[in-house]
Structure formats: C-alpha cells, structure tokens
Amino acid sequence: MDDFLQRLKQRKLVQWALAYLAAAWVLLQVLDLASGSYHWPDAVMHIAFGVLAIGFVVAVILAWYHGERGAQHVSGMELLIVTLVLAVGGGLLWHFAREPVQGVAVNAVADRHPASTAASGTTAATSVKATPAAALASSIAAQPIPAKSVAVLPFENLSTDKGNAYFADGMQDLILTKLADIGDLKVISRTSTMKYASHPDDLKTIGQQLGVATILEGSVQKAGNQVLINVQLIDARTDSHIWAQSYQRTLDNIFGVEGEVAQKVADALNTKLTAPENERVSQVPTRNAAAYDAFMQGEYYAQRAEASLIGADFAKAEAYYRQAVAHDDRFALAWARLSMVLAAQQGLTFTGDRLSTLAAQAKSALDHALALAPDSPDTRLAQGWYEHWVAYDLKGSLAAFENVLAMQPQNAQALLGAGIIHLHLGHYRDAVELLHEAAGRSPRDAALLAQLGAAELDLRDYARGQQTLRRALAIDPDSALALDTLVKSYFLVGDPEGAKTLLDTAAMELQGNPAITEMRVVVALQRRDYAAARKAAARMQAGGTYSEAYADSWRGDVEWLAGDRNSALRYYQRATPVFEAEVKLYPDNWKAQSLLGWLLMRQGKGDEALTLMRHAIGIASGRDNQWAADGLHWEMARTLAQLGKGAQAAAILDDLMSRPSGEPVTAASLKIDWVWDPIRHDPAFQALLKKYASAQPVAAGASATSSTQ
Predict the structure, then answer these.
(1) Which domain does 356 fall in, by range?
(2) Mean pLDDT estimate for the chain
(3) Model pTM greater than 0.85?
C-alpha cells in the first residue's frame, strides 16, 4: 500500500482529477445557463453529464498509466482500482443519463385506430392492442415537450373582497384567449388547469402532466377602481423565472393588458407572430369599463355552468353577458359568448316553449358577433356550437370549427367540436382521432376525456373506453358525464353489479345529480331490484336534462316491470299529453317523437308508435346524423321487442352489432337487459346471441388479447 501511495503521488493523480473536475464543473454551469435560455430539453444535460463522467474515468486511467515516464507496468492492485472507477462511473452515467419514467405514455397521433370492423352480417371482432396509449393513462408526458409551450394556472385573487374572484378568473381566461391566437405556441386550455392551485410547489410534475415547458402564474388585486396584476413566466423544468411583470391600472385603462401579457410570453419564448396573429393579439375587445367588468362576471358564471350544468349558473352568465353588450353593443366577444351560453341552454332543454325562445336569442347574438368580427376564432367557435345545438346543421357546424382550426390549429374546443360532429356524422374513427388530438391539447379536461371515452365505446374499443373514462374520473371525481358513461359501459361487458358498485362509491357531489339519479333507475332495473328502482325514480325531479313528464315515463317503466300495470298506465297517461303537445309544436324533435312512441306502445297503440319512430329515424337520417339514427334504431328495436316482433328487432340489432355504432350493443348486454325479455326465446334472437357468442367484449383490466365485440 505504501508503494501504491508513492506511485499515486508520483503520477500527480489527485491534481489531475481535481483539475478535471473543476473544468467539468465550469462547463456544466455554462451548459445549464444555455439550456435555460434556449429551452433545450433535459436530455442535453443528461448527455453532457454522461460524457464528462466517461471523460473523468478516461483521464484518471491515462494519468495513471502515463503519469510516470517509462513506467508502463500496471499492477494487479492498479487494475482493481481502475475497474472500481469504471464501475462507479458507469453507475453514475446510468443513473443520471437515463430518462425518468413518466408513467404510461400516450401517443395521440400514431395510435388512434384500435378497432376494425367486419363487413355487415359478420362478427366484428377486434383485438385490444396492449399499447401504452390504451389507457390514455397518466399524462401525455412521453411525447417530446415543445419549448414553445405554456399553461396558464388559475390566477390568485388577492382582493380583500373575495367577491372579486370573478375578476381573477376572467383575466386568466382573457390571457388564454390571446395566447391561443399564436399558432406557433402550444397553449393548454383552461379546463385542464382549473383544478391546480395558483402557485403550486411541484411545477416540474405539473409541466409533465400538461406537456408544457413553461407555466404562467398570476395574481389579481382589485380594490374599487384600482387593479394590480402580477404575472410571471416560469420554466417548469428548472423552476427558474423567465419573465415577470406587474401592471397597476385603473378599470378605465386596463384594456389590452391581456394582449400585452400574451406578447411578452411570445417574446420570452422566441415565438414570432404572423401579421394576422399580431393584429388579433393586440386588439382590445372593449374600452368600456362597465362592459369589461360585466363580461368578466359572465365568464366566471359560464365556467361554473360548464362544469355544473345547473340552470342558475347559465342564467347568471347570460345576465352578465347581456349587461356587457348593453354597455357596449360593439363588444363582439361578449356577443359570441352570449350566443354560446344561450345555445348550450337550448341543447340541454328537452321540451317546452323555451326551446324556440332560446334558439331565436342565440341566433340574434351570433348575428351581432358575425357582423362585428366575422374573422374572429371566438365568433366562429360560437357559430359552430350554434349550428350543432340549435340549427342541427352538422355540416355547417363542422365548417365553422374547421374555420377556427385554420386560424388556431391547436384550439382544443374546436378540435372537440369537430370530433363531436364527426361522431354524429357516423365517422367514428375520425371522431376518435380528433378527440385524441383535443386531449393532447387539454390533457386534464375531464369532460373532454369523457367524450373521448364515449367515442371509443362507440368504436367498440371497450377496454380503452373504460380506461379513458376512469382517467376522467380520476381527474375530476365530480364529472357526471364520465361516471354516467362509465356505468353504461358496464352493461356492455355484462356487469350490472359492477355498475351498482360504481354508483354506490361515487363522489358525494354526484349523489344528487339528475343524470346519476336516472342511472340509478337504469341499474336497479337491470338488476331486477324494483324496490331500489322505485326509490330512485321517486327522486327524479323536473328540470335538468328531463321534464316531469320524462320522469313519469321512467316511473311507468318501473311499475310495469314490477307488475303494477295500473299504476304504470297512470304514469304513462299523465306523460303522454306533454309529449303530444311537444311533437305538435316541434315536429322535428325526434327525441320527443321516439319517447311518445314508447308511451303509446305501452298503451296498446303499437302501429302508431312504430310510425312515430320511423318518422324520427327519417328526421335524424335526413340531417346526416348517423349517431342519433343509431340510437333511434335501438329505440325501434326495443319497441319491436316489447311488441313480440323478435325477427324485426333482431335484424336491427344485428346491424348495430356488426359495425361501430352510436348505440353499441353486445351479446353480453343483450343477455342482461330487461328490454329483450319478451323475445328472449325467439329463434331470431337466439340466433343473434349465437352469432356473436364468440366475440365477447373486454373490460378494462381484462385480457388485452381478447375480442372487443
């Protein structure tokens, strides 16, 4: 050992090692600064560290071997030391250079067609691929995160008056609207960031979850006429500040702050704006302080309504938007938002005179927006939803959404809208593609993921659909749409007990939700638990997505199946005049026609019922709404089944089961659904079950190689 230490001293190995480490440390600091300034990916620093680690090992070996002139002999002890150095260096290289595991990856571009469809009349059997995208699982993090990407977290309300929270939310939304105008910048939608805190600790994890390199934080303090806005842009990978600024304004000169912030973010990320983008970003929506303040409050309640689907929130949003345009009738953005709120209410209204009133008002607001700002993405987005929800013009709606995407290719709402329209047109694969794309732009949007999961079920990819829906509930346990659709998926895989468990363990916020109350009736009937069905049906209240007459139709079904036909008929007879009046007033309301047909069938008017249903199918088909037509064909099949017409019902079901469908049906669901009890022993129905017996659906978590029909 003394000899070894002497030779170590002769070769000046310690001096060489220290000199190398000092030089490497300086180089790493320079690279770190450059990486933060130019937004290089983390892999650059990993590689640099690895190269320097290898260089250190090589330098030590060379210094040892050549440090003493003429001393070329290497002893066994020296070889052992070199081996240890190589082992430690290799371990460090592996540890620091490897990419961190981000969970299950999602490739929303390359893996969008999980299911294929056999020709009509044959078994549609496809295998669920065991791909990372199957769950749309933990995040979109496995894809490279572009340097020019940003998420805007909810702005903190620092006002003494907590009632000013609307102003902070509105400022965040306006800045997002301006950032979305910049085509070269990936911007995450508000619905994906709304669940985060204003100033969270772990920005790196949030950046990975959202797939962005930078995060914009902000706070707003409003006192009377004075407003203080603080914003800061942070590199999510290093937690280092890129840019920060404060804006102290009055309500009379606050106009345009959102555009200034968007321009500063673009400059900080070296993003160049085109001339049209620059014009849109710098454009001030209004210079009227009262209109601006009312608009901010409208945005606040519109966002609440979007999540709650509660009529009171829609009404408040509508009232504030009306105040905004009353103060400034040239406020195009407020007119567009007013049209969207009115159209959304029309889309959620089932029956009544309110339908025509809302339709006319939504059209009027949209016409104002189009006259003032025909080339605005916000105006065209409002037009897309109006054409879908109110005018029922699917192709016109799709054209409007595509117009938005021509200006803002990454607009998540336009991608969502286009996906929904393709779904209604019966383009199920195209719909899933677009909804995957939208999920990539808004990865934490539970409502969007619920739509995607439903589309995957329509495409007969049950395992993936269930996984997507579970992801939506993990993000937002209060999502009624996600829970409702996931419960329905349990019927497709033949598991009504699992559906009941899912409802029983749902978040408390959902226990009184109208849609979930209705689903409790459905689940109880599938389980033939008529006491539970009666209890749930009694809790159905008028409003929300159904009227009192709609609730009566369900109560009638419960009593009919429970064996109390007299009580059932009383409910059916009480509901019938409401839907008769609706059909007379709105002859194109296919939902009302279909439900009226069911009520009449229960009262012994089978021929009249079938005529109404054929007419409803004709209306939906005439509007190219394949998705609605599929649902109406299922309604026709169940009515035929109740009338004992097994062969006709089986023929319709065979068509729905042979392809992607807006009303997916499986052999497993046919076996448990009470609807088919009257024809359960019919030869045509038995032949249908036999035909699809080998094509059983796969639930999420089941074998990934089984068939998905």
Answers:
(1) 288-392
(2) 81
(3) no
